[in-house]
């Protein structure tokens, strides 16, 4: 049987499942994410009532009238592709005509009155072999040899009136296509298990493809950070958009501001909900609070059916360029594939670990064609494991260090004194605002434990590490009730006692197994 996966056709044995189709085509798909299954092109088309006729003078939109003229609408669905590459047949002050096409309709010899913008199926010469599509430009009466059903009127003009006025017999129809609206997809699509059995003509959509905007480098990188595992979770659904809120609260500079057309991907850059990302199902006007991240080029079918709590596979082209956490040599080889020049700085040995790339943003790197990679010795990087029992404090720590955006972050030493057995790092009071007590210690704070001063104390947001066990005070020197414990150092602790005030230390997060 023949099916399509993300628009590409494939022949499969009868009885094949969605999973079989994915494996046969190698379609992009992250396990557990949404899959859209549509019964077939003809079945989908039966739910679509809007068609776009592209001509050499512009586009025209027609809205079908399936309730008023069901037989004529059905005839249109079977013949509309025949208009492609035909010239406009004739124009008068009252009408334009496209055709001829062949139908199986029965003509009548009656005269009927037509209103402006009505679209008529006319059997010229009372012959079904000379069927024309007539668009009425003004109220008039005529004998068109139309079928009796609804005076031959099967649609109305809903867009492109100026195009209709400009058309002449020298113009041509370039294409005619159904306009897929969200309601059509939702009515015809199903979210499936991968073991669902397929039928002839099925269409499967597995991922959303986004083309990032070069004019919004910060916003694009924010989006890349959300896509670390290749998928997004829908946190909010409305008729006109779906929203992704995993990095809300992070403000960005205004970048490209433009209309939020269907398929636009935007970032709220300020105000309530800053850091949220949206993909639009319907057109909306531009607003200064939304940066354009990019546009969906494939997979709007998934955007249309996704609901709150669903996860969707997302890919970007071009994808993210990220050298941080690679060795200098790995970065060199990686960048060469993109045609990007590497400029090594810091420790330049092949096995040094890249802790900073400059420019930091993918779109800037692609524009400039080169990037500085700053290396440090591998043993200079602290490995930490964050505690899920302190979600607010862990979030603050990731933002403070930059671990939200890159695989390796940094901290600046605020206090380090030989023999004190504690090192403290600078915080950010504005980011730490609202850092309520959570996961406060009850007994001994162990060597290597990391803590943050919470909002009950003056030095909110300060980060500290204990270098020996202590039964009274947390890693930032505060009492236990003023300290939120966020995790522990799992590698490189032997280097901490060598730190001095003003030093920068690099940190990498170890994921809990």
TrEMBL record:
Transmembrane segments: none annotated. InterPro entries: DUF8179 (IPR058492), Methan_mark_3 (IPR016466). Pfam families: DUF8179 (PF26548). Residues 383-509 form the Putative peptidyl-prolyl cis-trans isomerase domain. Belongs to the UPF0288 family. This is UPF0288 protein C7452_1787.
């Amino acid at each position: 049987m023949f099916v399509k996966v993300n628009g590409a056709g494939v022949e499969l044995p009868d009885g094949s499942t969605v999973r079989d189709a994915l494996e046969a085509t190698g379609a992009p798909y992250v396990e557990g994410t949404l899959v859209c299954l549509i019964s077939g092109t003809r079945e989908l088309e039966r739910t679509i009532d809007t068609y776009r006729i592209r001509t050499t003078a512009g586009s025209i939109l027609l809205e079908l009238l399936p309730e008023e003229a069901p037989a004529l609408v059905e005839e249109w669905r079977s013949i509309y592709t025949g208009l492609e590459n035909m010239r406009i047949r004739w124009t008068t002050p009252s009408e334009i005509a496209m055709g001829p096409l062949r139908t199986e309709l029965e003509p009548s010899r009656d005269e009927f009155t037509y209103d402006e913008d009505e679209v008529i199926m006319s059997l010229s010469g009372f012959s079904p072999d000379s069927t024309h599509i007539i668009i009425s430009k003004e109220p008039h009466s005529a004998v068109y040899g139309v079928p009796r059903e609804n005076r031959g009127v099967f649609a109305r003009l809903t867009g492109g009136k100026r195009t209709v006025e400009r058309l002449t017999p020298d113009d041509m129809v370039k294409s005619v296509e159904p306009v897929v609206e969200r309601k059509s997809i939702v009515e015809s699509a199903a979210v499936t298990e991968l073991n669902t059995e397929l039928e002839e003509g099925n269409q499967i959509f597995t991922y959303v493809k986004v083309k990032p905007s070069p004019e919004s480098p910060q916003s694009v990188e924010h989006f890349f950070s959300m896509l670390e595992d290749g998928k997004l979770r829908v946190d909010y659904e409305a008729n006109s958009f779906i929203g992704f809120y995993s990095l809300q609260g992070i403000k960005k500079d205004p970048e490209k501001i433009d209309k939020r057309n269907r398929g636009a991907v935007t970032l709220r850059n300020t105000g309530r909900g800053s850091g949220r990302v949206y993909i639009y199902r319907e057109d909306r006007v531009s607003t200064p609070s939304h940066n354009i991240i990019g546009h969906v080029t494939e997979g709007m079918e998934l955007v249309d059916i996704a609901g709150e709590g669903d996860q969707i596979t997302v890919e970007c082209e071009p994808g993210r360029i990220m050298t941080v956490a690679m060795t200098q040599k790995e970065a060199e080889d990686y960048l060469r594939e993109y045609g990007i020049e590497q400029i090594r700085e810091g420790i330049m040995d092949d096995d040094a670990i890249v802790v900073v790339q400059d420019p930091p943003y993918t779109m800037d790197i692609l524009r400039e064609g080169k990037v500085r990679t700053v290396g440090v010795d591998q043993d200079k990087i602290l490995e930490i494991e964050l505690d899920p029992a302190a979600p607010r404090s862990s979030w603050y720590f990731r933002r403070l260090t930059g671990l939200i955006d890159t695989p390796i972050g940094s901290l600046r030493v605020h206090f380090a004194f030989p023999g004190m057995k504690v090192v403290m790092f600078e915080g950010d009071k504005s980011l730490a605002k609202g850092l309520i007590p959570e996961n406060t210690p009850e007994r001994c704070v162990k060597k290597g434990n990391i803590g943050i001063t919470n909002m009950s104390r003056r030095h909110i947001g300060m980060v500290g590490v204990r270098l020996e066990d202590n039964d009274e005070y947390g890693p930032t020197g505060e009492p236990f009730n003023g300290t939120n414990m966020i995790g522990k150092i799992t590698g490189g602790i032997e280097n901490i006692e060598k730190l001095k005030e003003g030093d920068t230390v690099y940190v990498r997060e170890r994921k809990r197994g």
